[in-house]
Amino acid sequence: MSSPVNRFGNRWCTVQGGSSSGARRGGRMARTGLAGVALALAAGLAAAQGAPAQTYFGINVGKPKLGTDCGAAVFPCDDASTSVHLYGGKMVNDFFGFEAGYLHSGNADRAGGRTKAQGLNLSVVGRLPLGPVDLFAKGGTTYARTDVTADPASGVASGKANGWGASYGAGVGYNFGQHSRVVLEWDRHDMKFAGTGREGLKIASVGYVFRF
Q1: Which residues contact 132 (CB under 8 A, 6 or more apart)?
Q2: Do 37 and 113 belong to one domain?
Q3: Is the dihedral of CA 55, 174, 105, 203 positive or negative?
Q4: Residues 98 and 27 in one domain
């Protein structure tokens, strides 16, 4: 027959051993849970880093071509050497977005004077991703202000004009990672000019886009 001390001691050992075993199981479960949380966080960070950046700002520099009349042949009929387009936008998904920007056509020596145009543009953007390359098209409107000075003998009217006109364009882009992109683009903006009504400003440009 076992003594009370032995019975008590055996019970204590049993309880102590069970508690130690439970603690070990609890530790393993805690470590497993922490590992799962760590893996979930890592997967979330990887997904966030891999997600395409949708908001962007860009700058294009190009060669403009005015559609206005140059008057008598004895006067120069040049286009500006450089145009600038600053813009920003938001892609609501991989295929469609919206864009707003400011453009300046530069100063063109024409008809014995100078012609310049600038405007604010609003466009809807459609994009077709093809790996690192994408094709895109734009359509919208431009509120433009134009200023023409000309020699009276050229037959070209001088003056300022402003108003809304249609705009559209297309191009191709190449993506360098998630944040950098270069584009080749062609655009046309219909603008009002003094004495001639609405004429087209065409721009072929190259640009850099930063996305975030």
Answers
A1: 174, 175, 176
A2: no
A3: negative
A4: no
Helix (H, G, I), strand (E, B) or coil at 10: helix
Give yes or no for a contact between 150 and 158, defined as CB atoms under 8 angstroms apart: yes
Q: The domain containing residue 15 runs over which residues?
A: 1-51
The model's pTM: 0.71
Same domain for 61 and 20: no
CATH of the domain at 83: 2.40.160.20
* Per-residue tokens: 5: 């001390």
Q: Report the chain's C-alpha Rg in angstroms.
A: 34
How many domains would you assign to the chain?
A: 2
pLDDT 10s digit of each residue in the chain, 212 long? Answer: 544 444 444 444 444 444 445 445 545 544 544 454 444 444 444 444 444 558 999 999 999 998 877 877 788 888 888 999 999 999 999 999 999 999 999 998 888 888 999 999 999 999 999 999 999 999 999 999 999 998 888 888 899 999 999 999 999 999 998 899 999 999 999 999 987 878 899 999 999 999 99
